[in-house]
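User:
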Amino acid sequence: MPTFVVAGGLKLPESEVIAQYLCDKYATSGPSLTPDTAEARACCNLATRVHDVYIATAQGAMYRGPMDRGARANGIAEIAKQIAVLEEIATRTPGPFIAGTEKSTADAALFPTFIFIEFLLPKYFGWQDAFAKATNLKTWYAAMLADADAKATYDEVRGGLEAWESAGRFQKVGIVDDVADASYTWAY
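Assistant: Predicted structure:
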């Protein structure tokens, strides 16, 4: 869990709390990351909530281990389910980003996780494409990759995943053996 330590020692855990603090603290500097309308803000908050409550708690199934094979399969199924939920949320406001035409805190929360999803699910879990059933999220991901700040995040996270792969992490933690067990569903 991330924790942000504010000058003076106040410790703030949780991504959304940290993001809201930074948006409040630096409201007069740079982009606001807060959508302009109440509807877009609600979509932003909903997408972040879905990420933090449902995807973040399941995403370890993509890379942690060793773990119970059934638990891993359930985690992958939950990620697939929540991608569908986020796909629907992304249709509620026009624009390439999760909550409209400008980046928001939802984009900042979801993007690092989706780097894991885009890299790991096709390569290790047999998905044809992480966005095969999520065309709005595919458009969003491309828009994020076109953004210089997001691209820097992508390069850092992707580099870490490639280093894990080079070190044999996915074999060592049991993912390769788990996915070879066809009695579970891995690809969605």
